[in-house]
Write a structure and sequence with these properties.
CATH class of one domain: Alpha Beta
Largest sheet: 4 strands, antiparallel
CATH topology of one domain: NADH Oxidase
Distance between the termini: 31 Å
Number of helices: 8
Mean pLDDT: 94
Low-confidence stretches: none
Bound molecules: flavin mononucleotide
Radius of gyration: 19 Å
Strand order of the largest sheet: 1-2-4-3
Helix content: 25-40%
Structural class: alpha+beta
Shape: globular
Length: 202
Amino acid sequence: MIKEATNIYPMHDLLKKRWSPRAFSDLPVEKEKIRSLLEAARWSPSAANMQPWRFMIGFKGDNTYEKIFDTLAEGNKVWVHLCPVLMLVVGKNVINDTNEHYSVFKYDVGQSVAHLTFQAMELGLMVHQMSGFDPLKSTEHFGIPSKFEPLTVLAVGYIGEVDRLPENLKVRELSQRSRNEFSDFVFMNTFGETSSVLSENL
Ligand SMILES: Cc1cc2nc3c(=O)[nH]c(=O)nc-3n(C[C@H](O)[C@H](O)[C@H](O)COP(=O)(O)O)c2cc1C
């Protein structure tokens, strides 16, 4: 299934084609592809090159997968069970082992996931990020130290048939994707005033 962005201005084809599917295929994902995804995340930029991202990787049938799956919200479990690979994304929340709060670590971890997602698209894979999971349960399941914070879970796999989903999710899977207008988020002069970079072109 294809749910391309209805973009106004040109953008990279892989970004246009990215979306967050729920109907994944049973097809296993090649380990070398997973390694490429992690390489892309590894080369993401980060504040002071702190590289605060950590990934727990589970393949369907293994213990890590089961533990990650167990942390998911029920609304996610109903479709995630179709997906062959789960990743728990964890961020390191302190700098240089002092107690100084490293406030941009979530920004950095999110960016590493963006890199991973772009690489996934290049390899024919899809990524669906989730915050609908229990971080405390993840911490217990994996013995995650207190300096680290579970942030999201990623479902990774090949796209599957919509018919694999329960009826209510089929409707969501087939629905239009939407985005804010540029004027809602591109400003000049004062916060909230639309930038002329947009009107010049429209
Ligand atoms: C941080 C984050 C958390 C999300 N959590 C969930 C989730 O728990 N369950 C879910 O089905 N989708 C989740 N999503 C997917 C979003 O709903 C989706 O990205 C958004 O609706 C835009 O759709 P698109 O990715 O297809 O463009 C999450 C996405 C992000 C980035």
